[in-house]
Every structure is written in C-alpha cells, then in structure tokens.
Amino acid sequence: SYVLTQPPSVSVAPGQTARITCGGDDIGSYSVHWYQQKSGQAPVLVVYDDTKRPSGIPERFSGSNSGNTASLTISRVEAGDEADFYCQVWDSVSDDFVFGPGTLVTVL
Amino acid sequence: QVQLEQSGGEVKKSGASVKVSCQASGYTFDDYAIAWVRQAPGQGLEYMGWISIYNGNTKYVQKFQGRVTMTTDTSTDTAYMELRSLRSDDTAIYFCARGRSSTAGFDYWGLGTLVTVSS
User: Fold this and answer.
1) Do A23 and A67 contact (CB within 8 A), yes or no?
2) Which 3 state secondary structure label does DSSP give A64?
3) Which residue of A has its CA nearest to B39?
C-alpha cells in the first residue's frame, strides 16, 4: 500500500512559521488532507484537497503539494496550535485512505 | 450543526466482539459516507474502512477483512462498526468520521469510543 512519511516532531517559537512535510512517491498527483489532533481530542480537518481550508479554519493554515512532498504551513504560530498533525491521501491502488505517521508540533 | 455522537466505552475479553455506534445529526445522512478510524494508546491514526450510506457499499482495509462489519440504520441515522475476535492490540479509541469523496477528507468526527480488550 501507499506509504506516507512525516518528521516525528517540529519545534517552533511563537509568532514564527512551522512547516510540516508529508512525503510519498509522486504525492503531487494525489489529493492530500491534513488533520490537527490536540491531546485527548478528536482530529480536526484543517486542509483538504492540498490547499483548501474548511470553514472556521484560520488563514494561518495553508497547504501545498508538488513532486514527492506535500506541506502544511502554519504562520504566526500560537501556543494553542500545539498538536499532532497527520496527512492523509486516498490510495487508488488499494482503494483505501492512508494516514501518515503524524508530526508533533511543539511551541517553544 | 453537524454532530456524530458515539456510544460509550467498552471493556471486552479477548475473543469477544464489540459493536460501536455513531449517530449522525445536522445533515442529510444519505449524502455522505461514514469512515471508521482507530487510534491505539500513544499511536497514530489507523483507517479501517468506510460505508456509503446511500447504497450500503462497504470497503474494508485488508487488515480487518473478515473481522469487521460496518452497517447503518437509516431510520435512526446511525452507523455501526462491529469488530470480532478481539485481541489485546485492538485496544484503542475508535472514531467515526463523515466523508464524501477522495478529495474531500473527513470533515466531521465523533469524539471517539474507547474499547479496552483484556485477557
């Protein structure tokens, strides 16, 4: 099945920019979704179809996807952004959704 | 507002079965699918499969084939996930989530149901 890779952790100071990557073979040809999961809570969709934001998600969250890497960028990071972030794609070969292993974003 | 209300936590013995429910409200149930995702303690998200409410079609991840059954009751807008032959490594929080297509992601999630399997 399709394999996604993510760095285990990213640290960022408040007010700075965090970039979380999601690697996969030719991931640029897939539609990538991103979820934020705060401790003890259910995941929340923050970006879908590479770059789109659901209603209610701040513009500080943005996505991009090209080649073998998709990215989620969080601008002007706040303490409340600290969470695990997961990327997801639909694998047409297995006809299943696949999640990345997750990245813990720590706000210093 | 869209809500997915899940059933309460369960404690099961190895070899038993568990059935988790997910009652939807705030939208037209038939227009979406329901996906099931689990998360073992301290681990990441694991997709299990989904069911189309419109036609009842299901697609299970191969790992769970033969052990999982996803169903719906459109009279109560409720989806169910039954997992059989439970093992200790099935201990996890089980989430239901609303989905529509491969390009839409899962836009609403239930709060999760903790299933604990003990020997």
Assistant:
1) no
2) strand
3) A42
Which residue shows structure tokens 């033969």? B66
In this prediction, residues A39-46 reach a mean pLDDT of 98
Please, what sign has the CA dihedral across residues A41, A45, A12, A9? positive
Segment 21-60 of chain B within 8 Å of chain A by CB: 35, 37, 44-47, 49-50, 59
Task: Return d(Cα A89, Cα A96) in angstroms, integer.
Answer: 9
Q: Calculate how close chain A gets to B74, using CA atoms only, in Å.
A: 24
Give backbone dihedrals phi and psi of A28, rounded to 5 degrees, phi first: -60, -20
Contact A105, A13 (CB under 8 A): no
Nearest-CB residue to A97 (from B47, B109, B111): B47
Q: How many CA atoms lie within 13 A of A33 on its CB side?
A: 21
Strands B113-118 and B10-13: parallel
Mutate to test the interface with B, among A22, A96, A98 (most CBs of B within 10 A): A96
Q: How far apart are CA B77 and CA A44, in angstroms?
A: 22
Q: Is A62 helix (H, G, I), strand (E, B) or coil?
A: strand
Residue-wise pLDDT tens digits, B10-68: 999 999 999 999 999 999 999 999 999 999 999 999 999 999 998 889 999 999 999 99
- Residue partners of B101: CB distance under 8 A and separation at least 6: none
State the smallest CA–CA distance between residue B13 and chain A in angstroms. 25
